Amino acid sequence: MPVYIHRASNGKEKMLAKMLANKSKDLPQYKGFISAVMFTDSTKGYIYIEGEDLTQIEQLTSTIRGITNKPISINPVDLDELQDILVPRPAIEGLQQGDMVEIINGPFKGARAKVTRIDSSNQEVTAEITSASMGLPLKLHADYVKKISSENS
């Protein structure tokens, strides 16, 4: 079945997806319009709707405030294009020893650090804060760091 991308209120994707799914399931005039509704954390502000007829999907989405009733493109999205969204990549992927990272969560949020060790089995990174006068090694989950630059570049 074709998948269409619709804009949604930023931060309310989960609630709007539930409302859309419930309305298409419970109300007899909308029953069967939608096969699946999906949203991801990596693409905020968008909802992916799977359904056979675009006009019926537009009719259903027009009844819910917060979702645009017209899709971003009238052509359905290929599942190959959604592959990156559907299959989550580990947070540690792309990090190497010596990379400069920014800590994006926790008590050291906003600090810059240099990666000294990577533990891929636990998804943990050991990094030293560069702004500290002496090396302060921190053991952080890979989700808590964002790569700024690598040692090679």
Return residue spans where pLDDT drops below 50 for at least 5 consecutive residues: none
Say what the CATH topology of the largest domain is: Alpha-Beta Plaits
Overall 3D form: elongated
Strand order of the largest sheet: 7-6-5-4-8
Order of helices and strands, N to C? EHEEHHEEEEE
- Output the CATH class name of the largest domain: Alpha Beta
Distance between the termini: 44 Å
Structural class computed from helices and strand pairing:
alpha+beta
Question: Can you offer a commentary on this structure?
Answer:
A 5-stranded antiparallel sheet has the order 7-6-5-4-8, with no helix packed on it. It has a 3-stranded antiparallel sheet with strand order 1-3-2, covered by helices on one side. It folds into 2 domains: 3-86, Alpha-Beta Plaits; 100-149, SH3 type barrels (Roll), CATH 2.30.30. A hairpin with a 4-residue loop joins strand 5 and strand 6. It is built from 3 helices and 8 strands. It is of the alpha+beta class and 153 residues long. It starts with a strand and ends with a strand.
